[in-house]
Amino acid sequence: MDNRRLVEGDITGTLVRLAIPIMATSFVQMAYSMMDMIWLGRLSTEAVAAAGTGGFFTWLGSALFMIPKIGAEVGVAQSYGRDDMKSVKKYASHTIQLAIIIAVLYSIILISLRHPIIGFFNLGDKEVIRMAVDYLSIVSIGMVFYFLNPVYSGILNGSGDSTMPFKINAIGLIINMVLDPLMIMGIGPFPRMEVRGAALATIIAQFVVTLIFIIVNRDNTNLFSNLKLLDIPEGEYVKNIFKLGFPSALQTGLFASIAMIITRILSRWGPIPIGVQNVGSQIESISWMTAGGFSTAISVFIGQNHGAGHWDRIKKGYRKGLMIVGTIGIFATILLIGGARPIFRLFIPGDEEAIRMGILYLKILGLSQFFMTIEIGTQGAFNGIGRTIPPSLVGIVFNAARIPASLLLSSTILGLSGVWWSISVSSILKGLVLFFWYTRVLRQLPSESGCD
Predict the structure, then answer these.
(1) Cα–Cα distance between 268 and 228 in angstroms, integer?
(2) Is 137 domain-assigned?
(3) In angstroms, rounded to a whole number, what is the distance separating the alpha carbons of residues 138 and 209?
(4) Taking the mean position of all CA atoms in its chain, how far away is CA 292?
(5) 390-396 long-range contacts, Cβ below 8 Å, gap at least 24?
(6) How many domains in the chain?
(7) Hey, which of 65, 317, 397, 420 would disulfide with 364, CB 3.0 to 4.6 Å?
(8) How buried is 315 (Cβ within 10 angstroms: 0-12 exposed, 13-18 middle, 19+ buried)?
């Protein structure tokens, strides 16, 4: 795609062309965990709970890589809109540098503190604890690849090329899909590694993706020539990257931390609800990953048009983007409520108690899907104009409210389902508040004539 197409031409077509590869890339990244859950679910619900518990810290890691990823997407997009190719390269090199530094430090912390970290969840089952520690230890070794791949994708997305990240990440997914059953179940020459096999398959696939990103883009002179990754970062760019990415990182980090506390609350009912929520969140992620692809497209589209000063295209782009993500949310509601049983049985086919809980989880969370997709799409719009604080503030406030709400509702006749109601209601409120906030921002933007 010609990068200049984002500041001219048909808005809906531009958004869709940009969003579909990003959305597909999001599905690929989601499918890593989903494949793990499908195969581990054939071992036991406890194995799912263990991998899900260890996986919280890759989720927490995603908060950290949001800093360079958002910095790359918005910084590169706005620089392209201004035709400032020097800044484009600076954002590319600085975000890669930050990703490596943050990933290495985070890996050291996780490996050093793996036992007390898993101990926080109070799992109460020695075998589940052992499996969770094993999973976390292995995944931590490959954390640098887990950080670099989204940042490479963010740089390319910001330039208007969302197809290449999808193709490269898809290769990683195929590798993971092949290795998962071989390493988890011990097929062919591979020993039966169970949870450890799931973790190892993931980091091998992530390593291959990083390697392909480096090889394929080494001749991309617009973005990756003369990166000088060993040079001392320039303070101006580092400051702006943190300004753009830190609010989203803080929101994601607190979101993950709050989810960990929610999991601890769930542990009162044993490991089965933990496994159910881990699987249920993977299923629900279909909708928020889809909306997330369009959110990134909205962010890049608005970022380039913001850099070019095309204010009417920003307004129209947001409205059309919201129509698309809203449709996704309505479809997700119908799917999760109407197809709860067959969908959940795909993951844990042999545990009737887990299936019963999973159906309840999907139906409760299904009610909030439309509002959740509106929130995600609007977050991308805020990011595109460089105002990353409002969506982060809304997310932090309402996500934090889930903790007292979970404790209060679960202590009533709602019991376990009270925890899930707190999640669903807070998602509805986030979508409403963020939508009205952004419409107010739109009214403050200048107007121009002659826009498509």
Answers:
(1) 52
(2) yes
(3) 18
(4) 8
(5) 390/434, 390/437, 390/438, 390/441, 391/247, 391/248, 391/251, 391/434, 392/247, 392/248, 392/250, 392/251, 393/247, 394/430, 394/433, 394/434, 394/437, 395/251, 395/254, 395/255, 395/430, 396/250, 396/251, 396/254
(6) 1
(7) 420
(8) buried
Decide: helix, strand or coil at residue 274.
Answer: helix
Supply the pLDDT for residue 141. Answer: 92
CB 40, CB 198: distance < 8 Å:
yes
In a domain, 306, yes or no: yes
Both structure tokens of 384: 């595109």
At 439, list the tokens: 């419409």
pLDDT (tens digit per residue) in 393-438: 998 899 889 999 999 998 888 888 888 899 999 999 999 999 999 9
Name the 3-class secondary structure at 259: helix
What is the rounded distance in angstroms from the CA atom of residue 60 to the CA atom of residue 378? 22
CB 374 within 8 A of CB 295: no
Contact by Cβ (8 Å): 148, 83: no
Domain that holds residue 179: 3-444
Q: For residue 451, tell me if it sits in a domain.
A: no
pTM to 2 decimals?
Answer: 0.68
Residue with the larger pLDDT of the pair 146 and 281: 146
The residue whose two tokens read 């929520």 is 277
The answer to whether the CB of 329 falls within 8 A of the CB of 291 is yes
The encoded tokens of residue 52 equal 């899900």
Q: Is the pLDDT of residue 250 over 90?
A: no
* DSSP one-letter string for 21-65: HHHHHHHHHHHHHHHHHHHHTTT-HHHHHHHHHHHHHHHHHHHHH
Residue 449 belongs to a domain: no
How far is the C-alpha of 282 from the C-alpha of 98, rounded, in Å? Answer: 29
pLDDT for res 6? 66
